[in-house]
Design brief:
alpha+beta, 5-stranded antiparallel beta sheet, 4-stranded antiparallel beta sheet, about 40% helix
Length: about 375
């Protein structure tokens, strides 16, 4: 064996060249590789030219070297190294052509791809879209219809309520106009009365200050008897200093009947007519009111006059009665200071919150009220 680098002979078993120091293993490896290469050369079956390993055609005559492979010898795939059976044109593992020939496609042997049923999916999608559109339209239509119904129904109700409100308002205004007219007339009458009284008072001042000059002076027992009568609950409203009247038509009915009537607080009838209340509830029938008024004035009074005169009372057609709510009283205790009588007429000076001159007429052992005027 000779050194590859310097050509010197190398003793067997030596690892390095004794002359140049080159590693002996490299030389051995190179010679081994060279021999292996020389032994693997293929001879052309036609011209016997030695071709390098892997050559598929003779470099001298072009003859295919694949025929050189023995029938019982298995070749290897140049791509993946898998064994190739004689006569096989393609590697069974990776499909690489054994002789570099592009194979013809055998479409009959190839698996036929199964078509996916995309048409059914398209139909389902279309049906889903149509169904969603129909549902959306139905919801929209119902919403519009309900909204329209809500917008129209309240209008009908509002029109009805407005009509009722207008009627109630007109009735209320008519009632108020009547009451205002009567109040105005009463006010004018009172003013006329006051003017008349002022004139009379100016002309007869001395006589007013001493009423006993116009009749027989009442005794002490008579004054006590009349005072007791005037302070009864039934007639106290006629002598109230806040109930001033020159004649019976001017009597303030609210003052007369304020403490009259039956106490029905909390009864079913009171709740029906007046509703719930935390104050007293009173009932005065038309019949009772007419009887009391006639008893102490000697005159009849109609239901209509009571209706407009009892301003703070509510009237019920069902019970033909008037109803009131209050928790106080208008009772005003009076004292009879002096008085005279002229036949059946009695003129009295009485004092409650302030002085008034009361005129009574004695009838059948009782008294009826003629007037209650300011005392100057």
């Amino acid at each position: 064996m000779k050194c590859k680098k310097c050509g010197a002979n190398i003793t067997p078993g030596t690892k390095f060249c004794e002359k140049c120091g080159t590693k002996v293993e490299e030389v051995v490896k190179e010679e081994t590789t060279k021999k292996a290469t020389e032994t693997k050369k293929k001879k052309c079956p036609k011209c016997e030219f030695e071709n390098a390993v892997g050559t598929k055609f003779c470099e001298n005559c072009g003859t295919s070297l694949a025929e050189e492979v023995k029938k019982n010898e298995k070749a290897k795939c140049e791509n993946c190294g898998a064994p190739i059976v004689n006569g096989t044109k393609f590697c069974e593992k990776c499909g690489t052509p054994v002789d570099g020939v592009v194979p013809e496609q055998n479409y009959a042997a190839m698996p036929v791809p199964v078509k996916k049923n995309t048409g059914l999916k398209v139909v389902i999608i279309i049906l889903s879209i149509v169904l969603a559109a129909m549902i959306g339209f139905m919801v929209w239509y119902m919403f519009i219809r309900d909204d329209k119904k809500e917008n129209t129904e309240p209008t009908v109700v509002e029109n009805k309520e407005n009509k009722e409100n207008v009627e109630n308002k007109e009735n209320k205004e008519n009632k108020e106009n009547k009451e205002n007219k009567e109040n105005k007339e009463n006010k004018e009458n009172k003013e006329n009365k006051e003017n008349k009284e002022n004139t009379e008072n100016k002309e007869n001042k001395e006589n007013k200050e001493n009423p006993t000059d116009t009749g027989t002076k009442l005794t002490e027992s008579e004054l006590v008897e009349i005072e007791k009568f005037l302070n009864t609950k039934e007639v106290n409203g006629f002598v109230s200093p806040y109930n001033i009247y020159d004649e019976q038509s001017e009597i303030d009915l609210d003052e007369v009947f304020y403490d009259q009537g039956k106490d029905i607080t909390g009864s079913a009838e009171a709740k029906e007519v007046l509703g719930e209340s935390i104050s007293g509830q009173y009932k005065l029938t038309t019949k009772d009111a007419q009887e009391l008024y006639k008893k102490y004035t000697g005159k009849e009074i109609t239901q209509r006059e009571l209706y407009f005169g009892l301003y703070y009372w509510d009237y019920s057609d069902k019970y033909d009665a008037f109803y009131s709510e209050h928790g106080d009283t208008n009772y005003n205790k009076v004292a009879v200071i002096s008085g005279t009588k002229n036949n059946d007429l009695y003129k009295l000076v009485i004092k409650g919150d302030f002085k008034t001159e009361l005129t009574l007429k004695k009838v059948n052992g009782s008294y009826i009220f003629i007037s209650n005027e300011y005392y100057y």
